[in-house]
Amino acid sequence: MQANPCRKLILMYIERILEKAFPGVSAAARLQQIGLFTLIYALQGEQTPVTAAQLAQMTGLSDGQVLTHLRRLMAIDLVERTQIRNKRGRGRAFKITIKDTKETRRLVRAIEKAAAGRKR
Q1: What is the CATH number of the domain that holds 53?
Q2: Count of domains in the chain?
Q3: Which residue did the predictor score with more confidence, 101 or 117?
């Protein structure tokens, strides 16, 4: 059974998180970062933007724990935060997305090419 291209992409991102582990970060923290990244990846195509508050609510982590993990994911260039208006349109919030970089685009092209070759 061959792996789904989407799973391959997620695995590539997960490997980057594991390879660039921060000194002193526990295995449990790395797993939380992987889980958080995967959740962001899955949710970013939905109608509502992904926010730290939404991630905290979904995961049961505190806002501070989510922000700690997000900072680590931003430090290794996997996610980014963009300021937006909150859902009431008055205050500010931050939309969290998978960062679009030259490296990530190259990975996506490689996966799409592999998937296209498999269809033939």
Answers
A1: 1.10.10.10
A2: 1
A3: 101
